[in-house]
Amino acid sequence: MKISKRLVNANMMLIFLVIILFQFFIGRLIPLASYSDEILVLILLCIFLHERKLKILSSDIYFIFLCLLVFALGVLSNILSGVTDNFIFVFLDYISIIKTYIIFFLIIRSISSREAKWVLSKLYPISCFYIIVAFLCVIFGYVANISFFFKDETSIRYGLRAYSFIAENASSFGCLIIGLYTVIQAKERKSILNLCAKTAALILLLLTTKGPQIFYVAILIVFHLLHTKKIRIWHIGIVLLLGVVLGRYQIINYFLNENSARFLLAKTAFLIANRYFPLGSGFATFGSDLSRTAYSSLYREYGLSKVYGLSRDYGAYITDNYWPMVLAQLGYIGILAIVLMIHYIYTKVISTKYDNIEIKQSILALLITFLVGSLGAAYFNTSAGVFCFSIVGLILNSNRKQNC
């Protein structure tokens, strides 16, 4: 009975990760699949609560306290600000904000080492297949000029169209590739397929033309040079220079263009946080998907409803942020709680003993990339973010010596 239960847990984990990997494609056929990452959080929570032999650690209490603190701060902010009283939206927005962190916690505490290794072993061929097919399709897409694989045809950087394959956009595709690359890196036995898949993955990341994804490749190169002790000061200088050049578009449009949607969202977030100091305006009120659905009154109040991409009729850019959303909705105390959640993940990553240094490097590069990417987009509360940190949680568990 015990083996059957663990087998069910592992299969369930694998199925949901595959659904999340193809979420944008499957979601068009089965709308419920669009919520597969939230459903996975609820299932893992049930497993965690049902596990009778689970030993509660002090770090568990610390993380649970942070989750409850974020919820309490958000709800209290909602009550005091009075911007929205839709509790369903409030609760769903709370889940959206912390789902990536909580799914990491639930995996490392609910999925055993044996289950994690089994899931990763099954994900390995899927990862290789996805990457190789995506690589062949980008060649075919450029040769035959097929726009299907390039969702945003207006996004042309360095003379290249942003490649998104069958994902929602190039950024999401890049994050998924980073997660799959990490799966392949965790494979103990290397092979020609392993090398080809990793090489193809790095090329695909460059073809997304997105700054954070390109930055991920650069970090891996720096880590490799550091490990082989072949790095020089001028190596770091070149990488930094390339980062500035390749990230010029993001730097100008995210931080220097005072008329851009992202700049205005960040500026307004500080105004809202100061207005409702030390809390914020509450869940589903600013910068989140649900604040766009209900179209929060704050957008009109601060004049954002007249900005292209932030209006009621066309609000596509409302969710193109992360930290402004957290700051505005949860205030300065709330943003500190979220930072501590990320630090919790970092401590778990650092304290784990890995089979080889390359796994640790790829995970650290993933974490750094998400931190950089979150400066201009909602990296942490996307389905791609859930996918990546689920992979990280599984790898950390697979490196545990005990099969608990």
Short description:
This protein is 70% helix and 1% strand. Helix 4 packs antiparallel against helix 15 and helix 9 packs antiparallel against helix 10. The longest helix has 32 residues.
Give a structural overview.
This protein is mainly alpha-helical. Helices cover 70% and strands 1% of the residues.
Which overall shape is indicated by the principal axes computed on the Cα atoms? globular
SSE order: HHHHHHEEHHHHHHHHHHH
The strand order across the widest sheet is: 1-2
Helix coverage percent of residues? 55-70%
Structural class, judged by helices and strands? mainly alpha
Mean pLDDT: 85
Number of H- or I-type helical stretches: 17
How many distinct beta strands?
2
- End-to-end gap: 16 Å
Q: What is the rounded Rg?
A: 21 Å
Q: Main sheet?
A: 2 strands, antiparallel
Strand portion, in percent?
A: under 5%
Q: Low-confidence runs (pLDDT<50, min 5 residues)?
A: none
List the helices and strands and how they pair.
Layout: H1 2-21, H2 23-29, H3 36-50, H4 58-81, H5 87-110, H6 113-144, E1 156-157, E2 160-161, H7 170-185, H8 192-207, H9 211-228, H10 233-246, H11 248-256, H12 261-275, H13 289-293, H14 297-301, H15 323-351, H16 357-373, H17 383-398
Antiparallel strand pairs: 1-2
Helix pairs in contact: 1-3, 1-6, 3-5, 4-5, 4-15, 5-15, 5-17, 6-7, 6-8, 6-17, 7-8, 7-16, 7-17, 9-10, 9-16, 12-15
